[in-house]
User: Fold this.
Amino acid sequence: MIEITSARPQGQRLIAALVRCCLVWLLAVWQLPGLAQPAQPSRDQRDHISARAWLDDPAGSLGPEQVRSMGWTPYTGPLRRGYTDSTTWLRLKIAPPADPGQRGADRQTRLVLRIQPGHLDEIALFDPRQPDQPAPLAGDRHDWRLGEYRSFNQNLVIATPSEPIEVLLRLRTTSHHGIHVEALYWDEAEATDRQQQLIMGAVIAFLLMVLAWAVTVWFEGRERVVGAFIVHQVLSVLFALSLLGFSRVYLSDWLTAQAIDRITSAMFPITATAVVWFHWHFLREFKPPPLGLRCLKWLAAATPLTLLVMLAGLMRQAHQIVTAMTLLYPLLLLLLAWCTDKPAPGDPPRLSRRHLISIYGLMVLVLGYAALPAMGWLPSPPWAMYSAIAYGLISAAMLFGALRARARHAASARRKAQTDLVLAELLVVQERERRREQEQFMTMLTHELTNALATAHLAIGSLSPASPMRGRGYRAIDSMRNIITRCALSGELEAANPVLQVAAVNVLALLQELRHHLPAGASIALNTDAALPDCNTDRQLLGVILSNLLDNALKYRAEAGVVEVTAGPQSRGARPGLQLSVSNAPGAAGRPDPEQLFKKYWRGAGATRHAGSGLGLYLSSLIAHRLGGELRYQSEMTDVRFVLWLPI
Assistant:
């Protein structure tokens, strides 16, 4: 998701254009001034209904002869009464055609009562010209194949009157009592249905196109938000097909009308939950208030409750619960969009809050105009019978634009990450090559310097044993040899983990051996237990650590000072171990800097009078870590102390 301050990306421009187009379209077709039906609307000239009225039958026990003499309420356009347990009666005054035209005899003598929407339970027709005939029935609870005129709508057929008549329709349904009836000639009804089918086909094709795009994007990245959108879109398409009558038409050969009606009713809460679940995934990336996200989860949890209410036979109450959700959750989504945080520095780019508010503001408008008339709180034009489909279409367009922008920039981020990875791999290759060349150089340098030192050693050996230069020369050669050895060992340890030669090591014997090889005058005091336990470790590497510590203490001790070495068992938690400490009184070089002490090549300001490489303590700390132990510096009032702990 993207937010750019200078040049807006193509995805955001697409969203802004879609929002503007949808708003203009809504303003045009909803006739926002007044938000109510005109008193005398311009009637479709093909519609032969000249007057409409309705009557409420609370008990649902009245017959056609009883209701004809009762008080009726006139209305124009679609009737939207909301949810009620009553039976609704419609009285339609049908005028004879002024000019029947050149139609065939069969089509001229019959009118089709074209009834919308298609998801009404039962509509019965009472024609005063046929008082003794059974009332023809239409609706979801009756087999679509038994209808005389069959289409995706509900239809009833009457004979064309020769004089004005008043027919009655009885509506019984568990969904909202919203109904719109037109009386058209047969061929006019067919032409109108073809137009409707063309529009429905375009809507379904667009929804399927968005679904196919989402599936393609999901296979590329397997992102949860895209997967949630796929579920959202699949259920939206199935719900749209159910509302438009496709399930009633194409499943009638396999399922009963009652089963299809129950499936259509169950699709309502399931689809609403899928929509809420997708928006929870979608908005979570914008970091809205956590309480709002929890409220979305609670709304999604209403689906099991609604299905249980349906199973209990309370279909009307279940529909009311879902309609209330439809009114509530877009407002909650708009509030969450308003409360989203601004992206922090370093966050991935995403949609701006302004575009997010535009998307959810439009959804509130569309869903509000779908749910409020269903509750009987707002009149609506005929097409608003399918405003739920309009929501699916508009929301798919909006979310398609949002997810497309998100996918584009996610792909851009992935390409950048791949480029960074390639560059990192190149740097690794270059570093490996540089290290290999360095190792080759160190090997060559070590070999050449060793040969030169051997020659110097022979030359110094030719001096008189009493010559003071002989001892100095030997010490200088040993110092240079130690530096070369440490450099070579440091390179080996940094390049790869060495293969440890683990064996039981007598630490006391190793200390005595190292003390034996120290120069004359080295004052070493060993404070150890004679029964010191053996340590399972690499003897050679442990010798390097102890040798470096002893050499460091001897070089930087106080004049004529004694280096104290203490060793004894020391457990860490449940792990047994051995602790050795080497301490000395600080000499002229002073105390070391604890922050720099174990850094490679670091030497204190007072250490320059002694030969050294700055590798001894660094190398000792590195080896201690490889052996599973730890080397630390411990400053005391009178001494400089290094403490080594190793597992045994």
Observations:
- The mean pLDDT is 77.
